[in-house]
Write a structure and sequence with these properties.
By secondary structure, the chain is α/β, with parallel strands linked by helices. The relative contact order is 0.19. A hairpin with a 4-residue loop joins strand 1 and strand 2. The chain is built from twelve helices and ten strands. It has two domains: 165 residues, Nucleotidyltransferase, domain 5 (2-Layer Sandwich), CATH 3.30.420.40; 145 residues, 2-Layer Sandwich (Nucleotidyltransferase, domain 5). The strands form two sheets. A six-stranded mixed β-sheet has the order 5-4-1-2-3-6, sandwiched between helices. A four-stranded mixed β-sheet has the order 9-8-7-10, with helices on one face. The structure holds 5'-O-[(R)-(carboxyoxy)(hydroxy)phosphoryl]adenosine (KG4) and zinc ion.
């Protein structure tokens, strides 16, 4: 079989070590050949959240096994799989400094030793390109991936909502995009995680709030919808988080001084379910309304969902109810952080003629804006 180009993608911006091989074939179609992801979240959760030093050390531990796994999954019969790799793509930012350094230093070193071109990728910009992956190779581990039937075409509108980012972006090409709106404070996924803590629900917060919400009534608590006159597409989650806290305090007859850690044992299961449902609806309505408005104003060819919150079936059905086109979703395993989205954008940038980075001088960009 003739392959146009195969790229090894490396992602280490937060707590997931992701390494994957993606091919761009003669027809320009992106094919996933492997996707190795290791997370340090269990270790981090012993300390109540992600500890940057722990995340960075875990990347060091996971990196070599992840690269080996990604290469052997993609090329099980090859004695030197590096011969098959045409380039390396790596997350340059944004993210945790120590974590980014591990991935970037690994990628630079490999690019020099193996003499491969190196592509420096913006993590947030890469998220929606997980939905551009249209096929999988023969690795047995990939056969249960549910890939989108529709093809992502430019210009497209992407709704990127995760634990670290929340924005609406209009992409006109692989290198040109415009941030239509973004959060002014917290990310949507982070708000789900905080509300899970208030309600005493276990990690992962978003998923458990969503499950609890199924038992509740979204109309039992009236939560705010922030709106900005000067930037109608901007989002905000910090006020909504506080509104949930205040609603929970008043539901048990206490005032704002009552500590959030004491709430979950005093709230009834019915109150928790109603709070979860009301919060989930308010949090998702905020992005759904803005996506609809942006769709009408910018008239993109498609709408792509990306980031951990894109895994929410409620978000999917709310969007489908208001948009005239069916949004395109990556497989759940490609919604959260992974090396495949980095490799996918690397393939597209290489094909578009983007210049590779200098492996001797490339540095991390922890605060790289999109
Ligand atoms: O993209 P992602 O893995 O990563 C980081 O930002 O690291 O997204 C994780 C986020 C978490 O905040 C989680 O609460 C949220 O995605 N999430 C959800 C759901 N599943 C995951 N939020 C709402 N509903 C869900 N079903
Ligand atoms: Zn991410």
């Amino acid at each position: 079989m003739m392959y146009e180009m195969k790229i090894l993608g490396i992602e280490t911006s937060f707590d997931e070590t992701g390494v994957a091989v993606v091919e761009i074939n003669d027809d320009g179609k992106l094919v996933l050949h492997s996707n190795a992801v290791s997370s340090s979240i269990d270790l981090n959760l012993q300390y109540g959240g992600v500890v940057p030093e722990i995340a960075a050390r875990s990347h060091i531990e996971f990196m070599t096994p992840a690269i080996k796994q990604a290469l052997s999954q993609a090329f099980p019969a090859e004695s030197d799989p590096w011969q098959q790799i045409d380039g390396i793509a790596v997350t340059q930012g944004p993210g945790l400094g120590g974590s980014l350094l591990v991935g970037l230093t690994t990628a630079r070193t490999l690019a020099i030793i193996k003499q491969k071109p190196l592509y420096a990728i913006n993590h947030v910009m890469a998220h929606p390109f997980a939905a551009s992956i249209g096929a999988v190779g023969s690795a047995p581990e990939l056969q249960d991936y549910k890939l989108p039937e529709a093809t992502v075409e430019f210009p497209f509108l992407a709704l990127i909502v995760s634990g670290g980012h929340s924005q609406l972006v209009y992409y006109s090409s692989v290198t040109e995009y415009r941030v239509v709106g973004k959060t002014r404070d917290d990310a949507g996924g982070e708000a789900f995680d905080k509300v899970a803590k208030i309600l005493g629900l276990p990690y992962p917060g978003g998923l458990n709030v969503s499950l609890k919400a199924r038992e509740g009534n979204k109309d039992n608590f009236n939560l705010p919808q922030p709106k900005f006159q000067d930037a109608p597409y901007d989002l905000s989650y910090s006020g909504l988080k506080t509104a949930v806290l205040r609603a929970a305090q008043s539901a048990i007859g206490e005032d704002y001084t009552f500590p959030s850690i004491g709430l979950s044992e005093r709230l009834s299961e019915a109150q928790k379910a109603d709070l979860a449902a009301s919060f989930e609806y308010a949090a998702l309505k905020m992005v759904v309304d803005r996506t609809k408005m942006a769709y009408e104003e910018f008239e993109p060819r498609c709408v792509v969902l990306a980031g951990g919150v894109a895994a929410s079936p409620v978000l999917r059905s709310m969007l489908e109810a208001v948009l005239p086109v069916k949004p395109i979703y990556p497989d759940m395993k490609l919604c959260t952080d992974n090396g495949a989205m980095i490799a996918a954008l690397g393939c597209l940038q290489a094909q578009a003629g983007v210049n590779p980075a200098d492996p001797y001088s490339l540095d991390i960009k922890p605060t790289w804006p999109m």
